Amino acid sequence: MININLMIKERPRVDWRRVGAIAGLGSAVAGFSLYALAWWTDYSEVQQDLADLAPLAESYRKADAQSGKLKEQADLATRQEQALARIGRNQAPTGQTLVLQSVFAAAPPAVSVTGVVIDQEQVLLLTGQAPDFASAMQYLRALRELPMVSAVEERKVATTAAGGTTFTFAARVRREGAP
Amino acid sequence: MTRQRLLICVLAVVVLFGLPVYFMDGALAAGRARLEAEQAALAPLRQQAAAVRALEADLAERSKRSAAVQNRLIAAQPFATIQAELTAAAKQSGVTLGSVVLEGPAVVPDWPGVSRYQATLTVKGDRNQYLAFLRLLEDHRLLIELPEANLRMQTPAAAKSGVPGVEQVLELGFFVSSPGGKP
Predict the structure, then answer these.
(1) CA B31, CA A46: separation in Å to the nearest integer?
(2) Which of A7, A17, A66, B129 is the most exposed place for a label (fewest CB within 10 A)?
(3) Interface predicted TM-score (ipTM) over 0.90
(4) Which of residues 128-157 of B touch A (CB under 8 A)?
(5) Domains of chain B, residue spans
């Protein structure tokens, strides 16, 4: 007699615990691998940054060591520029000829300018003679209209018994770039 | 028993992976902290270095301007050059030069390598000629220190030609580059 039960192959049973354990372990290994990769990237970056800082610090220190000498050079250059500005103050483009020509040209034919002084503060002192008081005032008005002078004022006006007038006017020369 | 084994397995996994993560995190945090500390320590130096670089650029720019000024200095034979330039300007403008006194050299404060020569001259001519002479000096290729204008003219009665005459003493400064000097 044949035992039929021996002929039927028993279907293997799924060991769900083992499956779960293997899946869990696999997930843990995969997760850890991803984490380790990300960590390694960050860590290498930080180490690279730290390594880069050393030569950077060295270059900063070298630059810092030069700063004293450079500041001295810059101070000297500034003093030279100031000296140059002082020396060349009356050369073009801020020359005085244009001012002188303008104040002479502004004078009416009867008015004679006999003295012009420009001081270091760019104040213009004009002295002259006019046949009468009205001509002197006409010159004053003409001076006020000149673009390169500002704040013209009378300093002294003297009229003789014969009507002749001597005058002294002061005006400030408008510097280039000033309003 | 089976449950205990499972628990042990889970614990083993946690320990096996958790401990490295803990130490790796620690190492990364320590590295970042060190980086931040070193960067903070370098910040003032970085600012200083940036200022130095700006100063270097500024000096390079100034050096170019200084080289341009160098061309406006007398290089050699100052007396002959000054005399020749003044004579040429006088001829061109029509003024007459009276006495011409040349003196030098004098040290220019704050300008090493450059010396100053002075020319004191008497200029005669009418007003227009004098202004033309002054204009030539103002526009001259050489660096000339011109005094502030102080002009005295003849009165109309004294001026026969109609244009007031001028006889003016001028003190002019000329600048000479010394060999090897840095302008």
Answers:
(1) 6
(2) A7
(3) no
(4) 131, 134-135, 137-140, 143-156
(5) 1-70, 78-177
